[in-house]
């Protein structure tokens, strides 16, 4: 009999999401989940109401595959209002199942096998598999500790005639970096020189503390070579709704529409209608969101430092990437497994954010998108359990 591998070489190249595995372990051991980044509090009442109303009002069949017209209009209006971007809601916006599908559909739409895609490292774990599933070769460029700045020489060396796209996640998961205008300008210059597209992940755009978020598409000339990806999950605390969007030049948007149509047809219609309303929330809402997360950040940064964790204060998003060498001699995976089982707190092993796991062995990622009581309890549990670490 001929022996054939039952799963493709593609999927053999990556593992199950470690972040979601940690969520399962957290549930199994009754641990507080500071691993997978989702809030343990409810979205704004008016947004919940809008979803229920949309279901009752009959928005229960497919929307236009690339997004309900009302939502695309609301997205275009918001980008104009906040960033001064001029977007055609009919030709340049594609709504899909979360920023996750947007990134996948975008890569499928722009990348061919053999193309190279530049990814800053440490990176949000999805970008690796996204690239592999498209047949692309990822080129990793390290962010330099302790401030996680871009190493411009390393970045320059990563570009070649094979480079098709660069993935830019700002505010950044897992480092908390908010890339500054000078860094974006340096990236833009290289992308212009090498005719490279920028695929951004701006899902934490409203969660910044120390510097404003600058979308790559707002830099001179860059709207034409940038796909701006964002979504509702983090801004409105609705990670389970799966509503995200990609804003792109119309020729690229056409490609993304096709990939998206055959992947999922569409994002949930009533939830799209609800997010169209959420996008009209007053500015106070966004200020309140950032202020709330800033308080949580300050508390967790101080609390973790007191416990001996060595970390750089995040400037945005809701994660803390911390060194663990002052706390334990265990590696990241051993520590995360011990902590979820015996310490009652789940974190993400640092290695899941690096192509070479060895580079993340001394780190773990905490999230702080939880209620104050949850965070206080997590700090108490850490304080009680750290002295009991076996080594
Ligand atoms: N973006 C969230 C995180 O980084 C959730 C990711 C996921 O489910 N893989 O934790």
Describe it for me?
The protein is an alpha/beta fold and 391 residues long. It folds into two domains: 11-43 and 284-388, Aspartate Aminotransferase, domain 1 (Alpha-Beta Complex), CATH 3.90.1150.10; 45-278, Aspartate Aminotransferase, domain 2 (3-Layer(aba) Sandwich). It has 13 helices and 14 strands. It has helices spanning 9-12, 18-29, 45-56, 69-83, 98-110, 127-133, 152-158, 181-194, 250-264, 269-278, 283-306, 332-343, 372-385; strands at residues 32-33, 93-96, 116-121, 137-144, 149-150, 163-169, 197-201, 226-231, 244-247, 310-311, 319-323, 345-346, 348-349, 363-367. The strands form three sheets. The protein has an eight-stranded mixed sheet, with helices on both faces. A four-stranded antiparallel sheet has the order 10-11-14-13. Strand 6, helix 8 (181-194) and strand 7 (197-201) form a beta-alpha-beta unit. It starts with 8 loop residues before the first helix and ends in a 6-residue tail after the last helix. The relative contact order is 0.17. The model has no long low-confidence stretch (mean pLDDT 97). Bound molecules: glutamine (GLN). The site of glutamine has 7 residues, from helix 2.
